[in-house]
Amino acid sequence: MVSFILPANSASGGYEVANSVRLNNADNAYFSQTPSSSSGTTFTYSMWIKRGRIGLNGYLIRMVAADNSEADLIIESDKIRIQEYNGTSGANKWKYITNRLFRDCSSWYHIMYVVDTNNGTASDRVKLYINGVRETSFSTATNPSSGATSCLATTGARTFGGKASAGSFDGYMAECVYVDGTAKSTTDFGEFDEDSPTIWKPIDVSSMSLGSTGWYLDFEDSSSLGNDASGSNNWTSNNLAAIDQTTDTCTNNFCTLMSNHPSASNFTLSEGNLVASKSGAATVGLFGSSIMLTKGKWYYESKITDLASSERSRMGVAAYESVTGTSTLGASYSGFEFTGQTSGRFSLNVAGSQTEIDGFNTYAQDDIIMWGIDMDNSKLYIGKNGDWFNYSSANTGGDPTSGNGWVTNNTTILAAPLTVGYVGHGSGTSDSTEVKINFGNPPYAISSGNADGKGFGNFEYAVPSGYYSICTKNLAEFG
Question: What is this structure's pTM?
């Protein structure tokens, strides 16, 4: 049976996961603890992850004992490596490397790592499950001997989501559980959706017995992200803050930029693929969003936090099927750009024919730009710092709810599927661009806090009535 990760265009019923934590590799964000010794022969790890940048190695679990023995679960070269290394002998007690690559940064994976070295079948002593299905294809598969012990049986510092030096996981983690002394089954953590039986989804684990050193991280306390919701085996968070708590979870998947889109190589993505930066001479665009729009009414916010001179820093939307390269919108494809120069230039591009409008509004670095996208009526609305532009008459006074003040209703520019959160950088100098996108889980501080009509998202300004944040719950109902 083939199962699927929870995709960007599906909804999940039943148990709802409220929060995740966003870890940024460049910040070396991770959790640490030094518990008493655990069972070295029998244990279970379960976690949900959504990747940020592909190609980055990131530790999910790590322990180094006094004799330099190591216990690792790591994403390495986009594969999963499990390894138990004996620091005394210099040999591996067990080691597995998947053949499969895990490069989907639009969806959530459930990873379950189960150890029972007393199992009479050598190949069943270590098991890896992805989305409820056992992984059986490995380029390396070294089974443990009967009764072999992990260094978890010793007292020593452990890290989760990274390690004390470079090597943090990049992306989102949710519903993270360690069970000490028991080899659990997949059905203890998830189930297949009754309406879509190839989709694996989480179940409530709050009442599960976790053993003496077991723990459950639900990330619901933003002031203590390492809080053990099951008891007192808390973790210390390192290089993490309250802003790193998100509502992008394995039961409500929010839109992000896409690090595996070909044009993403032109930029550095960070903060869960919500920040794009570029410096130096280049004329490039980033066109991939994890959710692309075909119908419905949608809202998000963005701001340029590093503004290049003139019109060199840009943000907008693009008709995805018209994209043929990685240069900015003034090429052979169709889309809309808001350029970050002081005059607030708009660029309307239809199949290579570009119309530029200057002096329509003013713009300063760190202004928050509001985006209202009405795919049902092919209209795009733009606002700034709480005021919607009125393209037909004045700089302010637009209203996406009533349909007044749209900046374009060109069906070629807004052709489905529409990629959102476009970022552009056009410079012949050493200028730099940084754009931050808020699809509902802001990578920057919000002073007010506004949700859409369904209660989803966290925005600086009020979401227009009838418009919604771009997430799978809303997509299932309105998209």
Answer: 0.94
